[in-house]
Write a structure and sequence with these properties.
The protein is mostly beta strands. The protein has a 6-stranded mixed sheet with strand order 2-10-9-4-5-6, with no helix packed on it. Strands 1-3-8-7 form a 4-stranded antiparallel sheet, with no helix packed on it. The radius of gyration is 13 Å and the shape is globular. About 30% of the residues are buried.
Length: about 120
């Protein structure tokens, strides 16, 4: 059974930064594209970013482009999301997933951007 556990969330002021991690296990992590998705309070899942198998190709939602950076370490089986210049609208539970829709998402981490 695939396991994905996100961590690194917390409370941060607008303009601040956070780095999320997602520990992957029980599947061959290095062979899969990986995704970050998020769910803001009262809203549906939103795709944030994706990365290909070796990290050479990345893509971002317009809402986070230029502020977030996705990366991965295939030795450590870990996915990352560096989030800079955070805004209140980035407040959400963040999940890593094996698909863009978030159907295969794992345990999320709460990010709250507030002064």
């Amino acid at each position: 059974e695939v396991q994905l556990v996100a961590s690194g969330g917390g409370l941060v002021q607008p303009g601040g930064s956070l780095r999320l991690s997602c520990a992957a296990s029980k599947f061959d992590f290095s062979r899969y594209w990986m995704y970050w998705v998020r769910q803001a309070p009262g809203k549906g899942l939103e795709w944030v970013s994706r990365i290909d198998e070796d990290g050479s190709d990345t893509l971002y939602a317009e809402s986070v482009k230029g502020r977030f950076t996705i990366s991965r370490d295939n030795v450590k089986n870990t996915l990352y999301l560096q989030m800079n210049s955070l805004k209140s609208e980035d407040t959400a539970v963040y999940y890593c997933s094996l698909d863009m829709s978030g159907t295969s998402r794992g345990q999320g981490t709460q990010v709250t951007v507030s002064s």
